[in-house]
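Render O-antigen/teichoic acid export membrane protein in 3D.
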Amino acid sequence: MGSKKAFIKDSLVYGLGNGLKKFIGLLLLPFYTRALSVGEFGMLETLGTAAALIGGVLSAGLESANGFYFFKADEHEKGNVLSTAFFLRLLSFPVLIPVIFFRESLSRLLFDTPEHGFLVVLLCLLVPVNLMMSEQSHLFRYFRQPWRYNLMTLVKSLANIGLGITLVIVLKYGVEGAMWARVGSSLLVVVLAFGVFNFRKYTFCFSLSWARKLLKYGFPLIWAGLAAWIYNSSDRFFLLYYHDLNEVGYYSIGAIFSQPVLLINMAVQMSFGVLFYQSYYSEKNELKPHTRKMAVDIYVLYLAGSVILATFLSLFSDSLIPFVATPDYAAGSRVVPFLVFSYIAAQSYQTMGPGISLAEKTWHFAWITGVTALLNIVLNFLLVPRWGFVGAGLATLISFVIYWQIKVQVAARYFPLKYPFARILLLFFSGLIISVFVVFWPEVVGFMGRLILLFVVIALAFLLKLLNRRDLLVVFERLKSSHK
C-alpha cells in the first residue's frame, strides 16, 4: 500500500472514531447549555483549562519521548520502553496529593471564591487519570490498531454522556456532576484498555537507562508544554480577569464548534507520525527521498481538506450554534474563524517540522514555544480588554501562525523538505479572510453567497494543485470499503 493511501486509510479510521466521539459529545451540549448558565459553562471550561496546564507539567514530555524511542528501540526492548514510561506515569498520582490541601486557595484563584474547593479536588483526580488514559490510547497507535482505539473512544464517549446526563440533568449536580462524568469515563477506559488489551505489551521492568533517555528527551518538552498552554489556554484567564465567566462561555462554545478541525488534526497526528518514522527508519537510502516526498504529499492533502472544512464551519457557525445550543450562546460564532484557522496552523507546525525530533534537539521546542508564549501574553493584554473573547481568538491565531513559521524554518536545518510555501499560504489566508468577512458582516452575504464563497475556496485548492481528483477517489474508496 502506498504511503499516501496508508495515511488516508489510517486517518479515516482514526477520524471515524474521533468523529463519533465528538458527535456523541455534542449530544451532551444541548443538555449542558440548558442545564448550565453561560457562566457555569465557562466555569467547567476553566477547570478543563487548569487540567490542561497541570497535565502538561506532569506529563514530563513522556508521550513524545515514548513514541520516539518505541520506534527507535530494538524489538525485544520495546516492551521495556513502554513499561518504564508506564511506571513514570504512575508517579503523577502521589505528586498531586499536596495540592488538595490548598484547594480553597486554588478555588479563590480560579473563581474568586473558596466555595468551589471540591471542584479542585476533582481536578486533581482528573489529571492523572487522563494521563493514564492517554498512555493506554497511544499504545494502539504504536501497534497500528486503530479499531481498538476507536472502541475505547466509543466506550469513553458513551460513558461520559451517560454519566453526564445522569449527574447533571437528572440529579442536578451541575458543574460537579460534569466533572465526575469526566473522571468516571476516563477511568473506565484506563481499566478496560489496560486489562483487556494492553497489559501483554508490557514487560513490567523498570529500566534506569530508558528512564534517563525518556526524561532527557521529554524534559525540554515540559517547558514547551507550559509555553504551549499559555498560547493555547491562558486566554480564558485573561477573559476572567478583564471580563467575566460569560466571555469564557462564549469563547468555549466557539471552540467546541471548531472541533471538527481538531478532529482532522487528531486523525492526522495519529497516523502521520507512525507512517513517517516507519518509512524513515526502513528506507535504506540515506537521503530518504521517499520519506521526504511522503511528508510533503501528506501535508498538502491535509491543508487543502482542513482549510475547506474551516471555511465551511466559519461561514455557517452563526446558524449552527443557536440550533445546537441556545440563542444565548450565538455570539460565540464570531470567534470560530480565528480558532479553526489557529488549529490548522497548530497542526501545520506539528506535521511540517519532523527534523527537530529526528535530530533529538527537543530544546528547540522550549525556546520556540517560549517566544510564542510571550507574544501571546502581550497580544492578550492588548486585545482582550478591548475586544473580549474575539480578541482572545485573534491573539491565538497570530501566535499559532508565528510558531508555525518559526518552527518550519528551524526544522529545515535538520531535515529540509520542499513544501510549496507560496501556494500553502495563499490558500490558508484566502480561506481566513473570506471567513472573517462573512462572520463580521453576515448581512452582506446571504446563504447562496456563502455557498459560492465556499466553492471558491474549494476551486482554489484544486487550482493551486494542493488537492486533486485522485486524492478524492482514494478517500471515496476508503469510505466505501469501510461500510462493507
